[in-house]
Amino acid sequence: MQTTQPEITFSGAGGLEGMDGSRSVSEEVTFSKSYGDLSNNEVMVDELDQKLDTTKTYRLSGVVVKAKSNFATERDGKVHVDFDIIAPVDVLDPYWRLTLAPFLVDGDSITPLDTVYVTGEGFRDKQLGDLEAYQDFLNTIVDPEAYDSLFVDYKNMNKEIYKVQRRNYNDYRRNYDLMMDYENWKKMNEMEYLRMEAIARRHKLHVHEHHWRKAEKKALNQLSHKKDTTGIYAHHMEKYRKEYTNYLKRQFSFDWLNEELTPDINIHAHKDSIMRRSHIPKKYREIHQNGLTLRSLPAKPFTKEDSARIAKHHYLIDEIVLNDMNIERRGEIYNEVVEFPIPEEGRLGMRLDTITTAEYDFRYPYKQPWKIEKGTKKLEVVMAAMVEGVDRSTFVFPLTDTLTYFIASLAQLADESMVTERKMLHKSMVDNQSVYPDYRTRKSSKFKDIKNPDIFDKILDAYKIYNEQKDLVVDSITVRAFTDLTGMWHENYELSQERAIEVADYLKQKGVRHVATKAAGEDWPTLAKQIQAHKGLLYRQAILDSLANAVFPDMTEENIQRDFPDDFKIIKNEIYPKLNRLDITLHINRPAIDGDTLQETYREDYAEGIRLLREKEYMEALELLAKYADYNTALALVCLGYNDKAEEVLDALPESGRNEYLLAIVTARTERKNEAVKHLQKACELSPELYNRTRLDSEVRDLADEFNLWETLKN
What we know:
The chain is an alpha+beta fold.
């Protein structure tokens, strides 16, 4: 029970870094003794009495300042709460286990974070030994499905099996003997039937012969007396039929036959019916009615199911009861045998279970991502700790001091000054636009010869839009025409004048008032710029020199064509079409003001967007700020992680410290570190106050650490 205990501190140096060096939001001061030599009139602070001696100088022991508050950077609604867990060697031992359980306090909610276990080698041996003992116990348990093979009284079971087998055999033998008796009885009946059938056949022949002879005799007698013999044979044959059929009815009971009985009936064909109607002994009736044979007799085998059924009534009861109780008490026995379970790797609620020799202090960098709610200003972390010994003794440490994390969000960089829009209203303005008409012929100037007249639609649209503005009026439009160098210089000047007048007339027809024209002739300045920019010209510089030293324009063109024919061909095909141009200038005026005026407008929707941005409602804020495409719009995009879109917005804005700072964050996120370094240095150069902010934003802080920029940024 030491005075030392586990503690938590901020990762790295902790605290904050300011313009004047280290600082922290709140701090804890402790002292350590120093035994150096004291100079005259010096006293150590631990020798201090109750009363101060103002004649002496007091030396403080070494002061250790521990930061207790820090900033956590918010990104996309999440922060990373990083801190170090430190366990001094005094609270470590080979036969102890140290449990370190940090808690995170978010407003009224207290959430346990994953636990860290620091386990001594001897303590782990104890855990493994207990697990091995418990496994030995589990190995003695028999699966209930194996009871039929392991926990059976085989001696009595075999006797029962023999009885069942004997009973099955006796049942079969009894049915077999009955079937054999039936077959003998059936054979005797069939022999009797055959005898009766033979007698019937013989009787039929005797009766038929008897009546035939009588008919024959009577017929001969009638013939001898010359009498008619018609019907004699038929009469005696009818008597034959009646006599024989009556015999059949008596002998075979043919009265059940539905059809008319005749002497020609096939007695054998009715064998089965006659046999069924004969008297059958009661013991044979079922066999006879169902047509059973010896193959139909069931021979019941002795199956595995019979063995299992019999075995269930011949169990070793004592062994089964003991095994069942062991199964039911597995959990209780586990708790009895395994006093200190080893947490499963990856188990929910556990961060680390490490083995220590207890020779050095333990230090663990704890990193915890955390999703913050809207309006969360700070988070707090505190840690509980407990040590356990293999003898089951325990000691619970007091809670550690609380670490406080103030939420640092990029939204804090919002520029509220932009809520008020400040716009300079100029009395007079111009809108310059260029169009490139495609004439049907080189010398054409008529508007009807322009193949693409729709190019003037944008001029008319702009004229209409400006005039529809309540504070704007288009005073006039100036049309200035240019041509390429083909042909004579003075002719081209006149051609440009004619083209300008034709276009001016067209604009007037469309409702434009006050259109002025200017003839510019051949466009030599644009020609020189295009040649300078064209990388495919072999003699580019020589051609530029010819243009610069030109005295007679027409002769200069001819010289270039003669001296540099290949380059001239490229110039004529690719650059000349760009020289046939019309520059159209709209002169715009604000009648309501006397001169240039600064206008200030308070934008309520913009103010609401800033409020939502500070409340970390980034998507809702972006919906309000998107149309302005300014610094705060880019900030909302950066907060949402839309880095590419944010960079597009920032690239279109003028250079400033804050714009450069956001560009540094965006390029650092997209792994363009060299660009990010330049933007960060420029940001701190333009806005030195951003140096302090750099410590709070992980993207640029890591960048400054990696490239060792701190001194550069500070200066």
